[in-house]
Amino acid sequence: MANVGFLGLGIMGAPMAAHLAEGGHNVTVWSHNSDKAARFAQEHGCALAKTPSDVAARSSTSFLCVGDTAMSQEVILGDQGLASGAAAGSLIVDCSTISPSASKQIGAQLAEKGIRFLDAPCTGSKPGAEAGTLSFMIGGDRDAFEETRPLFELMGKALYYCGEQGMGLHAKVTQNLVLGNILQAFNEGLVLSTKGGVDPRVMIEILNNTGARSGYVASKAEFVLKGDFSTTFSVRWMEKDLGLAVEVGSELGVPLFTTSASQQQLRTAIAMGYGEEDISGSIRVLEEIASCQVRSATDKTSA
User: Fold this and answer.
1) Rounded Cα gap, residues 105 and 293, in angstroms
2) How many CB atoms within 10 Å of residue 108?
3) Whole-angstrom distance between the N-terminal and C-terminal Cα of the chain?
4) What residue spans define the domains of the chain?
5) CB-based burial of residue 90 (10 Å sphere; 0-12 exposed, 13-18 middle, 19+ buried)?
6) 274 φ, ψ to 5°?
7) Nearest CA among 31, 64, 27 for reference residue 44
8) How far does CA 295 lie from the centroid of its chain?
9) Cβ contacts of 198 within 8 Å, gap of 6 or more
């Protein structure tokens, strides 16, 4: 039984923390939303902390899963951040998808205090977090990763050690780059075929049985056909992740033509009011431009 902290109880963080508690560990939780954290702590038998520093003081390993780079920096290095309460030798694991270069800087500052650090972004969205089947991409000291493996295994089914600090994030940014571009190709293709007269349900069947098949199409198509854009991974966060990819491309001198265009499509979706909905809902940008709604003739539910 370990003393574990978890910070960030959003759409993915809450089920991740729940799995750690269900695994029999002493879990201390914190969230910017104190009411949410209090409800979670009561429901799952966890201790409740007032600050990230308090979480670190009670935990040998602290996980966090927050929205962006600035949030991670504040939760870890802020005035009442994890670093101010963590003991030398303790471990902080950041499961957020943030800037790899910023994560390396965080790791360097923690190392000065004798605090160990892993970047461990995850993929699988809400369903994977709830089922405990996330995939983690880990960067940092391998011994620290192996020590923490039993905790990861409560939350995920696939653990990929990618190398030194920041490499987990480089892998995650690449994974979301590919997903974001598949998303845009799907949006363009389905609007094009539907406007041309092909029943979208037939088109989806074709895609799922040819070389164009993808996990995204297989998992999201039915929701698009029914106009159900309930959030598992929001447009806002995918746009942020593609922005990280463009940033990394700039740092490494790699042109990312397609990714830049995909990010702009998602930014347009945000401007049109779809930012908090599922990424599949971004198809409505092209639907509105082309005056063509992608719904099967047998699916009459409106968006």
Assistant:
1) 46
2) 11
3) 47
4) 3-165, 171-290
5) buried
6) -105, 10
7) 27
8) 28
9) none
CA distances from 216 to 84, 170, 188, 224 (A): 41, 21, 14, 11
- What is 154-172 written as a DSSP string? HHEEEEEEEESTTHHHHHH
Distance CA 8, CA 96 (A): 10
In degrees and rounded to multiples of 5, residue 198 shows phi and psi of -85, 130
CATH of 3-165 given 3.40.50.720, 3.20.20.140, 1.20.58.760, 3.40.50.300? 3.40.50.720
> Burial level of 166, CB count in 10 A (0-12/13-18/19+)?
buried
pLDDT in tens, 229-288: 999 999 999 999 999 999 999 999 999 999 999 999 999 999 999 999 999 999 999 999
**Residue 30 DSSP label:** E
Residue 44, both tokens: 């799952």
Which run of H or E residues covers position 93?
A: strand 91-94
pLDDT tens readout for residues 19-47: 999 999 999 999 999 999 999 999 999 99
Q: Which fold has domain 171-290?
A: N-(1-d-carboxylethyl)-l-norvaline Dehydrogenase; domain 2 (1.10.1040)
3-state secondary structure of 134: strand
Residues with a catalytic annotation lie at: 172
Tell me whether residue 141 is exposed, middle or buried, using C-beta atoms within 10 angstroms of its C-beta: 0 to 12, 13 to 18, 19 or more: middle
How many Å apart are CA 32 and CA 190, to the nearest integer? 39
The string of pLDDT tens digits covering residues 109-123 is 999 999 999 999 999
> What is the C-alpha to C-alpha distance for residues 3 and 5, in angstroms, rounded to an integer?
7
